[in-house]
């Protein structure tokens, strides 16, 4: 297989659009990566010295974290309970 030279493009002009599109796509992909890294605030490039990190990224391992409430008191909504009862009676088969 021969190396790529300008002579290949001169002898095979049908390859010019292929190489042009490949170069264009590579440039666009590189510019998109640069845009995402430089302009988007949700990307962290420096993980070890980032002063503006989100609060869930910095968790103190000595502090207890509440993940779930086990004994939560349930207070039923009486209007909702009444509405459910009316709907059940409306769609119940007549006996």
Quick structural overview:
Keywords: Membrane, Transmembrane, Transmembrane helix. The chain contains three helices and no strands. It is mostly helical and about 100 residues long.
Q: Tell me the span between the first and last alpha carbons.
A: 87 Å
Q: What integer value in Å does the Rg equal? A: 32 Å
Helix content: 40-55%
Count helical runs: 3
What's the total count of β strands?
0
> What structural class do you assign from the helix and strand content?
mainly alpha
**Largest sheet report:** none
- Which strand-content bin applies to the residues? under 5%
Order of helix and strand elements from N to C terminus: HHH
**Average pLDDT number:** 79
Q: What would you call the shape?
A: elongated
Low confidence ranges: none
Descriptive report:
Helix content is 46%, strand content 0%. By secondary structure, it is mainly alpha-helical. This is Normal mucosa of esophagus-specific gene 1 protein-like. The chain crosses the membrane at residues 15-37. It comes from Saccoglossus kowalevskii (Acorn worm).
Any chance you could write out the topology, listing elements then pairs?
Layout: H1 6-11, H2 16-39, H3 78-91
Features of the shown structure:
0% strand, single chain, mainly alpha, B12D, 3 helices, transmembrane, 95 residues, membrane
